[in-house]
Amino acid sequence: MSNFNIQSILRENIKNLTPYSSARHEFKGKASVFLDANENAYGSPLDKNFNRYPDPLQISVKEAISKIKGVPVANTFLGNGSDEAIDILIRAFCNPQHDNILILPPTYGMYEVAAAINDVEVKHVNLNSEYQLDLEAIAETIDEHTRIIFVCSPNNPTGNSIYREDIETLLANFNGLVVVDEAYINYSRQKSFIQELTEYGNLVVLQTLSKAWGLAGLRVGIAFASEEIIEVFNKIKPPYNINQSSQELALEGLQQVDMVNKWILETTLERDRLIEKLAELTFVEKIYPSDANFILVKTKDAISIYNHLADHEIIVRDRSKVSLCEGCLRITIGTPAENDLLLESLNNYK
């Protein structure tokens, strides 16, 4: 167990914060007449009633996730997408214009945006040519004001997993939070870092229902961390941050583990097929190894290929202006039929 002390980096105003106490926080028992929350007692102008506030701590959803992931409810936070968890982490642990976070480009863009919104400095250490951590450069760049290192693994937009032992090196040696963003972990050959939560007090693992679970439209992100860190999340979050519909539908979706596993298998098989077929195209220079539901493809003329596909109503992501991704397109793995259309269109590209 690391001897990390969360109080040493928590902002003073957050330590002293008295969180908002909603009607649903204050009364926990059974009742038949609710006259405490100024709700509309008559119901909703819909087929179903949504006139009551939802469970502020989403206990039923967390219990369903706990059964699947094996992480206790007390170590689980649900956010309005993982973006809410990223924002809360920066607000809780970084003093504006004083502290900084470290990101490892090319990486997910929201870490930098959330820091900018909170007026927190961002330090950058690029991944190396293999898209792995440059541990030496990271050690040289962090200073006494670095509070959080964000590691995306499998990484977006490159698709590869970051070496486990390198992340463990950060966890063991950095006296701040190491946030491992595992949005794509279901497609990966790597184990999740959730097993390490008891070992490292400074570890936060982000996951989501948006990718493999196919629930992007519900906006349900997950953070796993020590109980102490989860308490901080719950102190800062808006009282009812996950709406009733999202909670009910997420709960329904979480019962369909077999269907999700079938889709994951099919996606990884399609990923292998796409890699094989794309490698045959003369304008494809390199396909990077992927542990995600997308592949990064280096081409001779990314913008021209992007436009050609768009003309055929096929949209991929142009990443050619991102550092270390020059000439690259990021292609999500579609259904077999969608992938066939993609390949047909690329075969016709002149």
Automatic annotation (TrEMBL):
It catalyses: L-histidinol phosphate + 2-oxoglutarate = 3-(imidazol-4-yl)-2-oxopropyl phosphate + L-glutamate. The modification N6-(pyridoxal phosphate)lysine is found at residue 211. Pathway: Amino-acid biosynthesis; L-histidine biosynthesis; L-histidine from 5-phospho-alpha-D-ribose 1-diphosphate: step 7/9; Lipid metabolism. GO terms for biological process: L-histidine biosynthetic process. Pfam families: Aminotran_1_2. Keywords: Amino-acid biosynthesis, Aminotransferase, Histidine biosynthesis, Pyridoxal phosphate, Transferase. InterPro entries: Aminotrans_II_pyridoxalP_BS, Aminotransferase_I/II_large, HisP_aminotrans, PyrdxlP-dep_Trfase, PyrdxlP-dep_Trfase_major, PyrdxlP-dep_Trfase_small. One of its GO terms (molecular function) is histidinol-phosphate transaminase activity. Residues 47-346 form the Aminotransferase class I/classII large domain. Its cofactor is pyridoxal 5'-phosphate. It comes from the Bacteria. Its EC number is 2.6.1.9. Belongs to the class-II pyridoxal-phosphate-dependent aminotransferase family. Histidinol-phosphate aminotransferase subfamily. Homodimer. This is Histidinol-phosphate aminotransferase.
